[in-house]
């Protein structure tokens, strides 16, 4: 909290290497070093490092550790005394200390302790498959395939959006009529 004197910001008073404080309306003008947050590390609710990515429909319990001006690190704060915020609620939301996936992209999360807000932590959010695109060798869309006995047809399948996992399984209802093979 900055202190103002005659409308101008003033620093802490130092005399002989010691900081002197003042009271205003019964409160200290300058917070003590033991009460001044200088950095926040966002972790999971157990104090471990955050994962690099969040799966489709995934969620994550958050925690935070605050470092104070006197050098001590506070206890792990999973809920009490900390507020977590998602910088883009279309990608992920935060309720209490639970981060919940909403859409693929980059999740940016901040934590606020005693008025100090951390730098944003980045977590990659997986993209959910939304549709598929089937094309033939010439790149033309394919809606249906009709083949004669002994004919083959090469098809390319892409999961959309392109950032989603490209894993898929092809299925033929009657394998006595046709088979599907995957080429490398």
Give keywords:
184 residues; mainly beta; Immunoglobulin-like; five-stranded mixed beta sheet; four-stranded antiparallel beta sheet
Describe the structure in your own words.
This protein is mainly β and 184 residues long. It has three domains: 1-30, no CATH class; 34-125, Sandwich (Immunoglobulin-like), CATH 2.60.40; 129-184, no CATH class. It is built from no helices and 17 strands. It has strands at residues 3-5, 8-10, 14-15, 18-19, 23-24, 27-28, 37-44, 53-54, 59-68, 83-86, 92-95, 98-101, 105-113, 116-117, 121-125, 131-136, 155-160. Strands 8, 10, 13, 14 and 15 form a five-stranded mixed beta sheet that branches. The chain has a four-stranded antiparallel beta sheet with strand order 7-9-12-11, with no helix packed on it. The radius of gyration is 28 Å and the shape is rod-shaped. The chain starts with a strand and ends in a 24-residue tail after the last strand. 15% of the residues are buried.
């Amino acid at each position: 909290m900055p202190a103002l004197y005659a409308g101008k910001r003033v620093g802490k008073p130092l005399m002989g290497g010691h900081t002197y404080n003042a009271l205003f309306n019964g409160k200290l003008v300058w917070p003590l070093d033991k009460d001044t947050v200088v950095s926040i590390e966002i972790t999971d609710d157990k104090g471990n490092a955050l994962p690099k990515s969040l799966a489709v429909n995934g969620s994550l319990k958050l925690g935070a550790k605050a470092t104070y001006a006197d050098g001590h690190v506070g206890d792990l704060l999973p809920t009490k005394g900390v507020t977590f915020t998602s910088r883009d609620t279309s990608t992920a939301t935060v309720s209490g200390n639970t981060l919940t996936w909403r859409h693929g992209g980059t999740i940016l999360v901040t934590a606020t302790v005693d008025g100090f807000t951390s730098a944003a932590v980045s977590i990659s959010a997986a993209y959910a498959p939304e549709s598929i695109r089937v094309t033939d060798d010439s790149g033309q869309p394919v809606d249906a395939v009709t083949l004669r006995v002994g004919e083959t047809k090469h098809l390319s399948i892409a999961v959309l959006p392109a950032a989603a996992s490209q894993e898929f399984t092809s299925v033929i209802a009657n394998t006595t009529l046709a088979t599907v093979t995957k080429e490398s």
